[in-house]
Protein backbone atom coordinates (compact mmCIF):
# COMPACT_ATOMS: atom_id res chain seq x y z
CA UNK A 1 0.00 0.00 0.00
CA UNK A 2 1.13 3.54 -0.77
CA UNK A 3 -0.05 4.67 2.65
CA UNK A 4 2.40 2.30 4.35
CA UNK A 5 5.24 4.14 2.67
CA UNK A 6 4.08 7.39 4.25
CA UNK A 7 6.12 7.92 7.44
CA UNK A 8 3.58 10.08 9.29
CA UNK A 9 0.68 7.70 8.48
CA UNK A 10 2.59 4.63 9.66
CA UNK A 11 3.80 6.42 12.79
CA UNK A 12 0.33 7.28 14.02
CA UNK A 13 -1.13 3.95 12.87
CA UNK A 14 1.44 2.10 15.02
CA UNK A 15 0.71 4.42 17.95
CA UNK A 16 -3.06 3.92 17.63
CA UNK A 17 -2.82 0.12 17.43
CA UNK A 18 -0.24 0.13 20.22
CA UNK A 19 -2.63 1.94 22.55
CA UNK A 20 -5.38 -0.55 21.76
CA UNK A 21 -3.08 -3.48 22.54
CA UNK A 22 -1.62 -1.72 25.58
CA UNK A 23 -5.03 -1.28 27.18
CA UNK A 24 -5.77 -5.00 27.06
CA UNK A 25 -5.50 -6.38 30.59
CA UNK A 26 -4.93 -10.00 31.51
CA UNK A 27 -5.55 -10.53 35.23
CA UNK A 28 -4.89 -6.83 35.88
CA UNK A 29 -1.61 -6.75 33.91
CA UNK A 30 -1.20 -4.71 30.73
CA UNK A 31 1.69 -3.56 28.53
CA UNK A 32 0.45 0.04 28.54
CA UNK A 33 2.46 2.39 26.28
CA UNK A 34 5.23 -0.19 25.82
CA UNK A 35 2.87 -2.15 23.56
CA UNK A 36 3.80 0.35 20.83
CA UNK A 37 7.24 -1.23 20.40
CA UNK A 38 5.73 -4.68 19.96
CA UNK A 39 3.30 -3.43 17.31
CA UNK A 40 6.20 -1.62 15.62
CA UNK A 41 8.25 -4.84 15.61
CA UNK A 42 5.46 -6.55 13.64
CA UNK A 43 5.28 -3.69 11.13
CA UNK A 44 9.07 -3.71 10.78
CA UNK A 45 9.07 -7.45 10.12
CA UNK A 46 6.91 -6.80 7.05
CA UNK A 47 9.29 -4.17 5.70
CA UNK A 48 7.71 -0.97 7.02
CA UNK A 49 10.20 1.73 8.06
CA UNK A 50 10.17 5.25 9.56
CA UNK A 51 13.00 7.82 9.14
CA UNK A 52 15.54 7.84 11.98
CA UNK A 53 15.25 11.62 12.38
CA UNK A 54 11.84 11.03 13.97
CA UNK A 55 13.51 8.64 16.42
CA UNK A 56 16.08 11.27 17.45
CA UNK A 57 13.41 13.95 17.90
CA UNK A 58 11.37 11.60 20.07
CA UNK A 59 14.45 10.57 22.03
CA UNK A 60 15.47 14.12 22.91
CA UNK A 61 11.94 15.13 23.93
CA UNK A 62 11.51 12.02 26.06
CA UNK A 63 14.87 12.22 27.84
CA UNK A 64 14.72 15.99 28.38
CA UNK A 65 11.26 15.91 29.98
CA UNK A 66 12.26 13.01 32.22
CA UNK A 67 15.31 14.98 33.37
CA UNK A 68 13.26 18.10 34.05
CA UNK A 69 10.80 16.09 36.13
CA UNK A 70 13.41 14.04 37.98
CA UNK A 71 15.94 16.83 38.62
CA UNK A 72 14.84 18.00 42.07
CA UNK A 73 14.34 14.43 43.29
CA UNK A 74 17.68 13.37 41.85
CA UNK A 75 19.67 15.88 43.89
CA UNK A 76 17.44 15.63 46.98
CA UNK A 77 18.03 11.87 47.02
CA UNK A 78 21.66 12.48 47.98
CA UNK A 79 20.58 13.77 51.38
CA UNK A 80 21.06 11.63 54.46
CA UNK A 81 17.60 10.03 54.57
CA UNK A 82 17.94 8.73 51.03
CA UNK A 83 21.34 7.07 51.36
CA UNK A 84 20.01 3.60 52.07
CA UNK A 85 17.63 3.83 49.15
CA UNK A 86 20.43 4.98 46.86
CA UNK A 87 22.62 2.08 47.99
CA UNK A 88 19.88 -0.34 46.95
CA UNK A 89 19.60 1.28 43.52
CA UNK A 90 23.33 0.90 42.93
CA UNK A 91 23.27 -2.70 44.14
CA UNK A 92 20.38 -3.69 41.89
CA UNK A 93 21.53 -1.96 38.69
CA UNK A 94 25.17 -2.91 39.29
CA UNK A 95 24.39 -6.58 39.95
CA UNK A 96 22.06 -6.69 36.92
CA UNK A 97 24.88 -5.36 34.75
CA UNK A 98 27.32 -7.94 36.13
CA UNK A 99 24.83 -10.78 35.58
CA UNK A 100 24.35 -9.55 32.01
CA UNK A 101 28.10 -9.57 31.33
CA UNK A 102 28.58 -13.05 32.81
CA UNK A 103 25.65 -14.62 30.95
CA UNK A 104 26.65 -12.92 27.70
CA UNK A 105 30.14 -14.41 28.00
CA UNK A 106 28.90 -17.87 29.02
CA UNK A 107 26.29 -18.15 26.28
CA UNK A 108 28.25 -16.09 23.70
CA UNK A 109 25.48 -13.54 23.13
CA UNK A 110 25.96 -10.54 20.87
CA UNK A 111 26.84 -7.51 23.04
CA UNK A 112 24.16 -5.28 21.50
CA UNK A 113 21.44 -7.86 22.19
CA UNK A 114 22.78 -8.43 25.74
CA UNK A 115 22.53 -4.71 26.47
CA UNK A 116 18.96 -4.77 25.18
CA UNK A 117 18.21 -7.71 27.49
CA UNK A 118 19.52 -5.67 30.43
CA UNK A 119 17.30 -2.67 29.66
CA UNK A 120 14.28 -4.87 28.96
CA UNK A 121 14.77 -6.88 32.16
CA UNK A 122 14.85 -3.63 34.12
CA UNK A 123 11.93 -2.25 32.04
CA UNK A 124 13.94 0.90 31.32
CA UNK A 125 12.97 2.75 28.16
CA UNK A 126 15.59 5.50 28.84
CA UNK A 127 18.09 2.65 29.16
CA UNK A 128 16.99 1.33 25.79
CA UNK A 129 17.31 4.82 24.34
CA UNK A 130 20.88 4.96 25.65
CA UNK A 131 21.55 1.47 24.29
CA UNK A 132 20.34 2.36 20.80
CA UNK A 133 22.32 5.59 20.83
CA UNK A 134 25.51 3.98 22.21
CA UNK A 135 25.54 0.84 20.05
CA UNK A 136 24.18 2.49 16.89
CA UNK A 137 22.34 -0.80 16.38
CA UNK A 138 18.69 -1.84 16.36
CA UNK A 139 19.67 -5.22 17.85
CA UNK A 140 19.42 -3.81 21.37
CA UNK A 141 15.69 -3.30 20.88
CA UNK A 142 15.28 -7.01 20.03
CA UNK A 143 16.83 -7.97 23.35
CA UNK A 144 14.63 -5.35 25.03
CA UNK A 145 11.50 -6.75 23.37
CA UNK A 146 12.33 -10.32 24.43
CA UNK A 147 13.15 -9.48 28.06
CA UNK A 148 10.58 -6.74 28.69
CA UNK A 149 7.40 -8.88 29.18
CA UNK A 150 8.84 -10.84 32.11
CA UNK A 151 10.50 -7.64 33.34
CA UNK A 152 6.98 -6.24 33.84
CA UNK A 153 5.30 -9.40 35.10
CA UNK A 154 8.24 -10.59 37.20
CA UNK A 155 8.44 -7.40 39.27
CA UNK A 156 4.70 -7.44 39.94
CA UNK A 157 4.75 -11.09 41.03
CA UNK A 158 7.84 -10.54 43.17
CA UNK A 159 6.51 -7.55 45.14
CA UNK A 160 3.18 -9.33 45.63
CA UNK A 161 4.82 -12.49 46.98
CA UNK A 162 7.48 -10.85 49.15
CA UNK A 163 5.24 -9.82 52.12
CA UNK A 164 3.70 -13.30 52.22
CA UNK A 165 7.03 -15.08 52.10
CA UNK A 166 8.45 -12.99 54.94
CA UNK A 167 5.10 -12.78 56.79
CA UNK A 168 5.15 -8.99 57.09
CA UNK A 169 2.07 -7.00 58.14
CA UNK A 170 1.84 -4.25 55.53
CA UNK A 171 -0.61 -2.07 57.48
CA UNK A 172 1.50 -2.25 60.62
CA UNK A 173 4.59 -1.18 58.68
CA UNK A 174 2.61 1.64 57.06
CA UNK A 175 1.56 2.92 60.49
CA UNK A 176 5.19 2.99 61.63
CA UNK A 177 6.13 5.14 58.69
CA UNK A 178 3.18 7.44 59.26
CA UNK A 179 4.26 8.00 62.85
CA UNK A 180 7.79 8.85 61.67
CA UNK A 181 6.47 11.18 58.97
CA UNK A 182 4.42 13.10 61.53
CA UNK A 183 7.66 14.01 63.28
CA UNK A 184 9.29 15.27 60.06
CA UNK A 185 6.25 17.00 58.55
CA UNK A 186 3.89 17.62 61.49
CA UNK A 187 0.37 18.82 60.86
CA UNK A 188 -0.25 22.54 61.23
CA UNK A 189 -2.97 23.95 63.50
CA UNK A 190 -4.25 27.42 64.33
CA UNK A 191 -5.33 28.55 67.79
CA UNK A 192 -6.20 31.81 69.52
CA UNK A 193 -4.54 32.95 72.73
CA UNK A 194 -5.34 35.77 75.17
CA UNK A 195 -2.43 38.03 76.12
CA UNK A 196 -2.16 37.46 79.90
CA UNK A 197 1.57 37.25 80.58
CA UNK A 198 2.56 40.56 82.18
CA UNK A 199 6.12 40.15 80.93
CA UNK A 200 5.05 40.63 77.29
CA UNK A 201 2.44 43.38 77.79
CA UNK A 202 3.55 46.64 76.23
CA UNK A 203 6.29 45.02 74.18
CA UNK A 204 6.49 44.68 70.39
CA UNK A 205 6.45 41.44 68.41
CA UNK A 206 10.00 42.17 67.24
CA UNK A 207 11.21 42.47 70.84
CA UNK A 208 9.51 39.25 71.89
CA UNK A 209 10.87 37.24 68.91
CA UNK A 210 7.81 35.02 69.02
CA UNK A 211 8.54 33.40 65.63
CA UNK A 212 12.05 32.26 66.60
CA UNK A 213 11.04 31.38 70.18
CA UNK A 214 8.01 29.23 69.28
CA UNK A 215 8.34 28.36 65.55
CA UNK A 216 4.73 29.51 65.15
CA UNK A 217 3.47 32.36 62.96
CA UNK A 218 1.20 35.16 64.17
CA UNK A 219 -1.61 35.40 61.64
CA UNK A 220 -3.64 38.26 63.08
CA UNK A 221 -4.45 40.08 66.30
CA UNK A 222 -7.68 41.43 67.73
CA UNK A 223 -7.13 44.65 69.66
CA UNK A 224 -10.09 46.50 71.22
CA UNK A 225 -12.45 44.42 69.07
CA UNK A 226 -10.64 45.24 65.82
CA UNK A 227 -8.76 42.71 63.68
CA UNK A 228 -5.32 43.91 62.55
CA UNK A 229 -2.38 42.55 60.50
CA UNK A 230 0.57 42.17 62.89
CA UNK A 231 3.85 43.90 62.08
CA UNK A 232 7.20 43.71 63.92
CA UNK A 233 6.28 47.01 65.62
CA UNK A 234 2.84 45.85 66.81
CA UNK A 235 2.56 46.25 70.60
CA UNK A 236 0.79 43.50 72.53
CA UNK A 237 -1.63 44.74 75.17
CA UNK A 238 -3.35 42.85 77.98
CA UNK A 239 -6.53 41.20 76.73
CA UNK A 240 -5.49 41.14 73.06
CA UNK A 241 -6.36 37.93 71.22
CA UNK A 242 -3.56 36.54 69.08
CA UNK A 243 -4.08 33.93 66.34
CA UNK A 244 -1.08 31.67 65.71
CA UNK A 245 -0.37 28.93 63.15
CA UNK A 246 2.06 26.10 63.83
CA UNK A 247 2.55 22.57 65.07
CA UNK A 248 1.04 21.37 68.34
CA UNK A 249 4.43 21.73 70.04
CA UNK A 250 4.91 25.25 68.66
CA UNK A 251 1.47 26.30 69.87
CA UNK A 252 2.18 24.87 73.31
CA UNK A 253 5.32 27.01 73.51
CA UNK A 254 3.29 30.03 72.39
CA UNK A 255 0.77 29.36 75.16
CA UNK A 256 3.51 29.53 77.78
CA UNK A 257 4.71 32.87 76.43
CA UNK A 258 1.39 34.59 75.66
CA UNK A 259 -1.34 33.16 77.83
CA UNK A 260 -4.28 30.75 77.87
CA UNK A 261 -6.03 29.46 74.77
CA UNK A 262 -9.44 30.89 74.01
CA UNK A 263 -12.35 29.75 71.88
CA UNK A 264 -13.19 33.35 70.99
CA UNK A 265 -12.90 33.96 67.26
CA UNK A 266 -11.19 36.85 65.57
CA UNK A 267 -13.66 38.08 62.95
CA UNK A 268 -12.37 39.40 59.68
CA UNK A 269 -13.05 43.09 59.29
CA UNK A 270 -13.99 44.62 55.96
CA UNK A 271 -10.48 46.01 55.74
CA UNK A 272 -8.84 42.62 56.27
CA UNK A 273 -8.65 39.42 54.17
CA UNK A 274 -6.97 36.00 54.36
CA UNK A 275 -6.43 34.58 50.90
CA UNK A 276 -4.55 31.82 49.08
CA UNK A 277 -2.29 33.33 46.40
CA UNK A 278 -0.68 31.29 43.61
CA UNK A 279 2.97 31.96 42.68
CA UNK A 280 3.20 32.37 38.90
CA UNK A 281 5.40 35.47 38.62
CA UNK A 282 8.88 34.43 37.45
CA UNK A 283 10.46 37.48 39.12
CA UNK A 284 9.81 36.20 42.67
CA UNK A 285 10.87 32.59 42.11
CA UNK A 286 13.90 31.50 44.21
CA UNK A 287 13.65 34.64 46.37
CA UNK A 288 13.01 34.44 50.10
CA UNK A 289 10.04 36.01 51.85
CA UNK A 290 12.49 38.26 53.66
CA UNK A 291 13.92 39.52 50.37
CA UNK A 292 10.45 40.33 49.05
CA UNK A 293 9.68 42.22 52.27
CA UNK A 294 5.91 41.94 51.82
CA UNK A 295 5.24 42.96 55.41
CA UNK A 296 6.91 46.36 55.10
CA UNK A 297 5.80 46.99 51.53
CA UNK A 298 2.19 45.77 51.68
CA UNK A 299 1.48 45.23 55.37
CA UNK A 300 0.85 41.59 54.45
CA UNK A 301 1.98 38.48 56.27
CA UNK A 302 2.57 35.08 54.63
CA UNK A 303 1.55 32.54 57.27
CA UNK A 304 2.04 29.27 55.43
CA UNK A 305 3.22 27.75 52.16
CA UNK A 306 1.59 24.79 50.45
CA UNK A 307 3.99 22.95 48.15
CA UNK A 308 3.54 19.50 46.59
CA UNK A 309 0.63 18.82 48.95
CA UNK A 310 2.59 19.71 52.10
CA UNK A 311 1.82 22.69 54.36
CA UNK A 312 4.86 24.49 55.76
CA UNK A 313 5.11 27.34 58.24
CA UNK A 314 6.49 30.36 56.40
CA UNK A 315 9.51 32.27 57.67
CA UNK A 316 11.63 35.10 56.32
CA UNK A 317 14.13 32.49 55.05
CA UNK A 318 11.54 30.44 53.12
CA UNK A 319 12.27 30.41 49.39
CA UNK A 320 9.41 30.88 46.94
CA UNK A 321 8.92 28.27 44.20
CA UNK A 322 6.88 28.46 41.02
CA UNK A 323 3.45 26.95 41.69
CA UNK A 324 3.50 27.49 45.47
CA UNK A 325 0.25 28.43 47.19
CA UNK A 326 0.78 31.11 49.82
CA UNK A 327 -1.72 31.85 52.58
CA UNK A 328 -1.59 35.63 52.92
CA UNK A 329 -3.12 37.78 55.65
CA UNK A 330 -3.47 41.30 54.33
CA UNK A 331 -5.50 44.47 54.34
CA UNK A 332 -8.06 44.68 51.52
CA UNK A 333 -6.38 47.84 50.24
CA UNK A 334 -3.19 45.92 49.46
CA UNK A 335 -4.43 42.48 48.43
CA UNK A 336 -4.44 43.34 44.72
CA UNK A 337 -0.83 44.46 45.00
CA UNK A 338 0.08 41.16 46.68
CA UNK A 339 -1.71 39.18 43.96
CA UNK A 340 0.17 41.13 41.31
CA UNK A 341 3.49 40.56 43.09
CA UNK A 342 3.11 36.78 43.10
CA UNK A 343 1.22 36.46 39.83
CA UNK A 344 -1.82 34.49 41.00
CA UNK A 345 -2.56 33.42 37.40
CA UNK A 346 -3.58 29.76 37.22
CA UNK A 347 -3.48 29.87 33.41
CA UNK A 348 0.30 30.32 33.50
CA UNK A 349 0.65 26.94 35.18
CA UNK A 350 -0.74 25.26 32.08
CA UNK A 351 1.12 27.43 29.53
CA UNK A 352 4.20 25.88 27.93
CA UNK A 353 7.19 28.07 27.05
CA UNK A 354 9.12 26.27 24.32
CA UNK A 355 12.20 28.49 24.53
CA UNK A 356 13.60 26.76 27.66
CA UNK A 357 12.81 23.36 26.15
CA UNK A 358 14.57 24.10 22.87
CA UNK A 359 17.51 25.79 24.61
CA UNK A 360 17.89 22.95 27.10
CA UNK A 361 17.91 20.31 24.35
CA UNK A 362 20.50 22.29 22.35
CA UNK A 363 22.74 22.52 25.42
CA UNK A 364 22.22 18.81 26.07
CA UNK A 365 23.22 17.85 22.53
CA UNK A 366 26.36 19.99 22.81
CA UNK A 367 27.31 18.48 26.19
CA UNK A 368 26.74 15.00 24.76
CA UNK A 369 29.25 15.75 22.01
CA UNK A 370 32.05 16.46 24.51
CA UNK A 371 34.59 13.66 24.75
CA UNK A 372 36.89 12.79 27.65
CA UNK A 373 39.97 10.78 26.69
CA UNK A 374 41.49 8.58 29.39
CA UNK A 375 43.92 7.01 26.93
CA UNK A 376 44.35 6.47 23.20
CA UNK A 377 42.04 3.47 23.41
CA UNK A 378 39.42 4.67 25.90
CA UNK A 379 37.34 7.76 25.21
CA UNK A 380 34.12 8.51 27.09
CA UNK A 381 31.28 10.82 26.15
CA UNK A 382 27.76 11.19 27.50
CA UNK A 383 26.27 10.94 24.02
CA UNK A 384 22.91 12.32 23.01
CA UNK A 385 20.96 10.54 25.75
CA UNK A 386 23.38 11.22 28.61
CA UNK A 387 24.06 14.82 27.56
CA UNK A 388 20.40 15.79 27.30
CA UNK A 389 19.57 13.98 30.53
CA UNK A 390 22.35 15.54 32.60
CA UNK A 391 21.65 19.06 31.32
CA UNK A 392 17.94 18.61 32.07
CA UNK A 393 18.71 17.40 35.60
CA UNK A 394 20.95 20.38 36.30
CA UNK A 395 18.56 22.93 34.76
CA UNK A 396 15.65 21.49 36.72
CA UNK A 397 17.66 21.83 39.91
CA UNK A 398 18.59 25.46 39.10
CA UNK A 399 14.93 26.17 38.39
CA UNK A 400 15.38 29.71 37.10
CA UNK A 401 18.02 31.71 35.24
CA UNK A 402 17.06 35.38 34.97
CA UNK A 403 13.60 35.42 33.38
CA UNK A 404 13.89 31.81 32.12
CA UNK A 405 12.11 29.10 34.09
CA UNK A 406 13.56 25.63 33.51
CA UNK A 407 10.45 23.94 34.86
CA UNK A 408 7.26 22.70 33.21
CA UNK A 409 3.79 22.08 34.47
CA UNK A 410 2.99 18.43 35.10
CA UNK A 411 0.52 18.26 32.23
CA UNK A 412 2.92 19.83 29.70
CA UNK A 413 5.75 17.55 30.81
CA UNK A 414 3.56 14.46 30.55
CA UNK A 415 2.32 15.38 27.07
CA UNK A 416 5.78 16.04 25.60
CA UNK A 417 7.27 12.99 27.31
CA UNK A 418 4.53 10.72 25.99
CA UNK A 419 4.84 12.16 22.48
CA UNK A 420 8.61 11.70 22.47
CA UNK A 421 8.36 8.17 23.84
CA UNK A 422 5.80 7.12 21.22
CA UNK A 423 7.90 8.51 18.36
CA UNK A 424 11.00 6.80 19.69
CA UNK A 425 9.36 3.40 20.25
CA UNK A 426 7.66 3.37 16.86
CA UNK A 427 10.89 4.02 14.94
CA UNK A 428 13.05 1.70 17.04
CA UNK A 429 10.50 -1.09 16.73
CA UNK A 430 10.22 -0.89 12.96
CA UNK A 431 14.03 -0.79 12.64
CA UNK A 432 14.41 -3.94 14.72
CA UNK A 433 11.45 -5.80 13.22
CA UNK A 434 13.41 -6.99 10.21
CA UNK A 435 15.77 -8.98 12.47
CA UNK A 436 13.24 -10.17 15.05
CA UNK A 437 12.08 -13.51 13.67
CA UNK A 438 15.57 -14.68 12.69
CA UNK A 439 17.03 -13.79 16.10
CA UNK A 440 14.20 -15.41 18.04
CA UNK A 441 14.41 -18.60 15.94
CA UNK A 442 18.13 -18.85 16.56
CA UNK A 443 18.20 -18.09 20.29
CA UNK A 444 14.83 -16.72 21.38
CA UNK A 445 14.12 -19.16 24.23
CA UNK A 446 17.64 -18.86 25.54
CA UNK A 447 17.43 -15.08 25.46
CA UNK A 448 14.06 -15.17 27.24
CA UNK A 449 15.53 -17.37 30.00
CA UNK A 450 18.52 -15.05 30.34
CA UNK A 451 16.14 -12.09 30.61
CA UNK A 452 14.35 -13.85 33.49
CA UNK A 453 17.66 -14.34 35.27
CA UNK A 454 18.63 -10.67 34.81
CA UNK A 455 15.25 -9.65 36.28
CA UNK A 456 15.09 -12.01 39.26
CA UNK A 457 18.66 -12.44 40.54
CA UNK A 458 19.35 -8.72 41.20
CA UNK A 459 15.91 -8.30 42.82
CA UNK A 460 16.51 -11.24 45.16
CA UNK A 461 19.98 -9.97 46.13
CA UNK A 462 18.78 -6.39 46.68
CA UNK A 463 15.77 -7.51 48.73
CA UNK A 464 17.89 -9.72 51.02
CA UNK A 465 20.32 -6.86 51.67
CA UNK A 466 17.48 -4.37 52.29
CA UNK A 467 15.60 -6.73 54.60
CA UNK A 468 18.35 -8.38 56.64
CA UNK A 469 21.29 -5.95 56.46
CA UNK A 470 19.68 -2.50 56.23
CA UNK A 471 16.49 -3.65 58.06
CA UNK A 472 14.33 -1.31 56.01
CA UNK A 473 10.61 -0.83 56.32
CA UNK A 474 8.94 -3.06 53.74
CA UNK A 475 7.15 -0.18 51.98
CA UNK A 476 10.39 1.77 51.60
CA UNK A 477 12.09 -1.40 50.40
CA UNK A 478 9.43 -2.25 47.83
CA UNK A 479 9.31 1.36 46.63
CA UNK A 480 13.09 1.38 46.24
CA UNK A 481 12.97 -1.98 44.49
CA UNK A 482 10.40 -0.90 41.90
CA UNK A 483 12.17 2.45 41.45
CA UNK A 484 15.50 0.70 40.88
CA UNK A 485 13.77 -1.54 38.33
CA UNK A 486 12.18 1.63 36.85
CA UNK A 487 8.93 -0.33 37.02
CA UNK A 488 5.82 1.83 37.22
CA UNK A 489 3.54 -1.26 37.01
CA UNK A 490 5.48 -2.68 39.96
CA UNK A 491 4.87 0.50 41.95
CA UNK A 492 1.17 0.28 41.09
CA UNK A 493 1.14 -3.25 42.52
CA UNK A 494 2.70 -2.01 45.79
CA UNK A 495 0.25 0.91 45.95
CA UNK A 496 -2.61 -1.57 45.83
CA UNK A 497 -1.32 -3.17 49.02
CA UNK A 498 -1.37 -0.02 51.19
CA UNK A 499 -2.77 3.52 51.34
CA UNK A 500 0.61 4.83 52.46
CA UNK A 501 2.59 7.17 50.20
CA UNK A 502 5.93 5.86 51.52
CA UNK A 503 6.51 3.50 48.61
CA UNK A 504 5.87 6.29 46.11
CA UNK A 505 8.36 8.58 47.87
CA UNK A 506 10.99 5.82 47.87
CA UNK A 507 10.29 5.12 44.19
CA UNK A 508 10.68 8.80 43.28
CA UNK A 509 13.92 8.99 45.26
CA UNK A 510 15.73 6.09 43.60
CA UNK A 511 14.21 6.24 40.11
CA UNK A 512 16.44 9.07 38.80
CA UNK A 513 19.51 7.50 40.43
CA UNK A 514 18.76 4.08 38.91
CA UNK A 515 17.94 5.61 35.53
CA UNK A 516 21.19 7.59 35.33
CA UNK A 517 23.32 4.72 36.68
CA UNK A 518 21.78 2.27 34.19
CA UNK A 519 22.54 4.66 31.32
CA UNK A 520 26.16 4.86 32.50
CA UNK A 521 26.34 1.05 32.74
CA UNK A 522 24.85 0.70 29.26
CA UNK A 523 27.46 3.04 27.82
CA UNK A 524 30.26 1.16 29.59
CA UNK A 525 28.95 -2.21 28.33
CA UNK A 526 28.75 -0.87 24.79
CA UNK A 527 32.50 -0.19 24.92
CA UNK A 528 33.37 -3.78 25.88
Automatic annotation (TrEMBL):
Record-linked Pfam families: Asp-Al_Ex (PF06826), TrkA_C (PF02080)
Cellular component annotations (GO), alphabetically ordered: plasma membrane
Segments passing through the bilayer: 6-24, 31-48, 54-75, 87-107, 142-162, 378-398, 419-437, 443-462, 505-525
One GO process term, biological-process aspect: potassium ion transport
Primary residence: membrane
GO terms assigned for molecular function: monoatomic cation transmembrane transporter activity
UniProt KW Acetylation keyword: no
Membrane topology, from the record: Multi-pass membrane protein
Compartment annotation: Cell membrane
Highest taxon of source: Bacteria
RCK C-terminal domain mapped to chain residues: 175-260, 261-344
Alphabetic keyword roster: Cell membrane, Membrane, Transmembrane, Transmembrane helix, Transport
Similarity comment: family membership: Belongs to the AAE transporter (TC 2.A.81) family.
PANTHER family named among the record's database cross-references: K(+)_H(+) ANTIPORTER SUBUNIT KHTT (PTHR30445), TRANSPORT PROTEIN YIDE-RELATED (PTHR30445:SF3)
Descriptive protein name: Transporter
Source lineage: Bacteria, Pseudomonadati, Bacteroidota, Bacteroidia, Marinilabiliales
